[in-house]
Records
---
Amino acid sequence: MKKQALIVIDLQNDYYPSGKWPLHNIGTVTFNAVTLLWAAREAGDPVIHVYHEFATENPPFFAPDTHGAQIHPSGAPQDGEWAVLKTEVNAFHKTELKALLDTDDITDVTIIGAMSHMCIDSAARSASDYGFNVTVVADACASRDLVFQDMTIPAQEVHNAYMSALEFAFAKVTTTERYLKARMFPCLNGGSL
């Protein structure tokens, strides 16, 4: 029987304008993420918040025990929601995330948060490899400009490239609006997200 969970990855203070590593369009992404978070809570779906703290000295952001590493207040965990600390890019690597999903008999995961080209990508691929049905809500995920061989790749292009790669083989990629419509009216979507 299908049972789904929402995984909110790395919506932490350092990714916001006053933080050390601000992301492109983080305000809109947060609005969509919080909308999905409240929809999951209303539906009674398990919610797992994943947050990152670097285990290295002098990290560029997400330093342990700093304001920047704290989950942004707009999406803070509520009582009964899990919070999983990771020290690597992949939310499944060296964490209890998979065990939590297995304990609750989760079959389907919806992934939102940041960054599209790092933690979202690696979590979605791992979840797929573990056999979960994966949905990534693209407009509830954020990225930033990247530099490669002296070229700057704009954040939106980075994001789009990663979403298209995930959709090709690892996940269903959708928007907040389509995701919520499918949740409210499953018969219009063949009964699936």
---
Amino acid sequence: MPYRFLGRVVLLNLTLRVHRKIIHIDMDAFYAAVEQRDFPEYRGKPLIVGGSPEGRGGVVATASYEARKFGVHSAMPSKTAQRLCPQALFVYPRFDAYKTVSEKIHEIFHRFTDIIEPLSLDEAYLDVTKDKQNIGSALDIARQIKQAIKEELQLTASAGVSINKFVAKIASDMNKPDGLTFIGPSRIEAFMEQLPVGKFHGVGKVTAAKMKTMGLHTGADLKKLSESEITKQFGKPGKFYYLIVRGIDNREVQPHRETKSVSVEDTYQSDLTTKETMWTELETLAIRLADRLQRHGLKGRTVTVKFKFHDFTIITRSLSLPELVNDQESLSAATRTLLDKAPVDEKKVRLLGLGVSNFKTENEKNTNIQLDLF
């Protein structure tokens, strides 16, 4: 009720902070698990989805847990995977099958909430702050989702539960497979302080290496830097690191997020100085990009190559194709055209990137192929 102070009415405006309830669901070795479910002869054996059965080319899309014991992991060249695990069985991806299973998983999600942000066929964020069944507990909802996936689809999922997307995603990876990890508000700052910098999403190998040379090994080390210091060292991402190490992530779950582009890139320890070496690296990027596009069920029309030089200047070259593509051969052909036309002779290139955008429908046709400078 109002308080009276010196004859005046003073209203107390109390703001109650309401935390979001966020779940991140990540299927366990999804493609391999579907293959082992559908084909009993693969069960209990090291299985690699993607690449070549002879290990001659391509990259690993997913490896079963039996194969992971030998050090095989996603995005690894299949040659390396075959060397690490010679007894592994290689199978080609069946993306139509995975997409069908993914749709059934999302049907389960929708029993609890419609605020779902898919990241790929096998993972998604769910905002269950207000759930459809009035369960209330995000932890109980996560348990029910996992149980439904196991009983109805004969697959396992790992779940992370927290008050924001960043922490929920990290939590889902902590106790795989078939894990369930809850990190509540009172634990977040302490959890972030002990987290190795390499575990921060968005911190790649090169950035992690730079951090370690600066003596920044954990979130607690990052927390010692002021916002201006961390931004000076790492640019715009530095501001995000400053906030997240304090447990602050205000990003909403976006159920209708539109994918505008998909890309991959690599930074090199030694500068690339010839088009031949650049082409070798771009071919590898094309394999990785094709795998990522196919896993997300996407096809695009515009291919872009990014060059970052030794002096940190950046140029990009883009090619718009007459047809939608997501296969490695089409991407490589477009990339070769772009590289041939790029002014990179006698330049020192420290980073290469390759991306696809312009995700239109198959019915839309471009009448001309255009080469653009973005």
---
Amino acid sequence: MSNWKLLVGQAVQIWRGNEIVDQGLVEAVTADGSVLWLTQKGAIGRRMVTKERGTGLWVQLMN
């Protein structure tokens, strides 16, 4: 997924290489689409994710 601005409100998984490093609901994306805020369950309520080489983003479809 290259245009992160389309992901607001979607459940996603964050990948680095072949490993899932995080997952949650995309709460917001910066205007330039290079940073997103991920809302999570548990002790860490919110996390900033930046686009960088080696970071992939998968959209997780929810039923």
